[in-house]
User: What shape does this take?
Amino acid sequence: MSLWFDTPASQWEQGLPMGNGRLGMLVHGDIGKETIVFNEDSLWSGWFEPANDREGAYRALQLTRQLIKQGARQDEIKKAAMEFCSLHGYGKADFGAYQSFCSVTVSSGHEQKDVSNYHRRLDLKSAVSKVTYEHDGVRYEREFFSSYPAQVNVMRYRASRSGALDLNLNLHSLHKKAKITVDSDGLVIRGEVDNGKNKPEGMKFEGRLRVKVRGGRLTSGESNLQISGADEVLVIMTGATNYQLDYASQYRGASPELKNIEVLKQLKNKSFSVLKQEHTLDYQALFKRVRLHLAGTDRSDMPTDQRRQLYRESKDDVGLENLTFQYGRYLMIACSRPGSMPANLQGLWNHSNSPPWTCDYHLNINFQMNYWPVDLCNLSECAEPMVRWTTDLMKPGKKTAAVHYQSPGWVAHHTTNVWGFTSPGPARGIHMLEAESSAFLCQNIWDHYAFTGDIKYLRERAWPLLKGSADFWLVNLQENADGSLSVSPSYSPEWGPLSDGSYYQTMILWDLFEHCIKVSSILGVDEQWATELKLKQARLQPLKIGKYGQLHEWRQDQYEEGIDKKKHRHMSHLWSVYPGHQIVPGRDADLTKAAIRSLNLRGDGATGWSMGWKINLWARLLDGNRTHKLIGNFIGSRVYDNLWCAHPPFQIDGNFGYTAGVAEMLVQSHAGQINLLPALPDVWHTGEVSGLKARTGIELSIAWKNGSLRNVELLSSIKQSVPLTYKGKRVQVDLPKGKKIHLDSHLNVSSSDSSQLR
Assistant: This one.
């Protein structure tokens, strides 16, 4: 299972990405002068700003709420709201942006016109990339991987004829305050991010490139290395910053030099074969958990760029649909591992010091979408950076809640960074008034428990986050004239007025309260508090169906006028369908019908991430063929040649949304039961999948033929009883811990397991 090409990459979005969570690289495969872009996931401009929270902002919040209640003009409301926003943050120097680390160029002296049999490949089964070609009768091979065990990027150059390698290695940086030197082992880059004149000190970084040559000769210039007549060249790259994910330390930690020395010390002169073996075993322990086979056309014998072009016209290549699914899992392993930062808007990969939207953590769907597939697709370990980062974010979030809202608990808004920014604003105006963003984060935090069943995680890590968010909202819900509760100011991302009637916020809070009520029961804690929460949940503004048959986006009828003629990339009023679970087909018929109407009104065209969301929405609405149409649209028009999601520009969230959506088509477990093949499209008539997860801690293998279930196997991490459904039939199955239970096409448990069926 590979992405492969018969030409070098001509642009950034055609390169092949690799990563170990913390370190990334992108290989273009150029012949004469290969450029490999390196990234380290914590390297940012900006700084920790103690004055993020604006003293006196609460008075502006009170005025904003008063103006909304009085029905004031939007310009008056917005003016008051901007006085509530921070004077720092997004769009300001202190907020910063994710940075490029460095790049290495490897010049071979060969020209593309003189080579033959060129091949560039990324093997998803091993997370190894190769470039091969022939020149003057010699076969040249370059091999690349990012090792999580060793915490280095590895490159090896070989030739079929002894002494045929002549290479020139250079390091390059986009940073003004970077210096490249030569030492006894290779090249070193040291620098500091330039925050601008009279600004606080920038983040420090260091990278070390180590070179081992077999045969031939290694010499050095002022800032480059020359290799002549070699048989094989091994290049190892590591990098670090002085960043530390810790609010109390203002996000400053040990020097990058000390970190790099420790990494290189642990290598202990390991050979390429040992490094590769360790890398492969580590990676495959995660990637091999899920296997998907779809019967039908598989054009894996075509270069991926040509294959995608043909798919755009024919929509006939289930193999490419499967490849794109597994590519999302590959990217998750590559950009989010324990100890790393969480995946940002571009995951890990960045070739600019001014990337789109600062390559930050957008919290009104993009960051959360990154982690939609992580548990469902059996990569729960990859959720650790998201959980660890959110736990730290709660600390500045408590200060923001106290200063801006005079409230307990914690809060975060539209966007944040590595510096713990949780305040509203300032740039992008009312976009920044999305205080529900922290509650949205709690959906991911809850789901990690729901899929794993890890009580220790629930008690020690998830519960403080969920309860802290709910504490904030218990005192910030506003009462409407009819006695219902809503959020003010509220805003339906990323359009519409500031009001007290957007449903997006109260849909998120309905789920947050539901989860908190469950946790209180599971842990046996805060029972009186949970009772209060249940009363508040029941008073949240009730969902409403409009005159066009649509699900209302706002409580107020006037904001819905002409909504049947408007398109928008956000489907925020459908949050309760996915990723929420307030609306469930089969249980909520009228609301489901209205949700379908609203989704139809939004149309099938969208940006990349939006299309990823629509795939999940149609899957939750149990329409397999419509879901597959969106899959076709996504691959046909919203991915680049290297299958990265195109917003455009590149944003990785759509890749993860796609992968989650494919899994949702095959198994769903959000509504208190496991639903098998709930949104199977006609074109996927025959296939099998193994390793997908259901809540709580259940691994499934499912096979089907001609559109009908053949058999299913369940393996639970805990002893439990679960309802299982398929095409309207429902059975209750008792699952022992650690023992596989087999069911046939009629959901009958095999004779040896028959005692498990009730």
Observations:
- The longest helix spans residues 384-405.
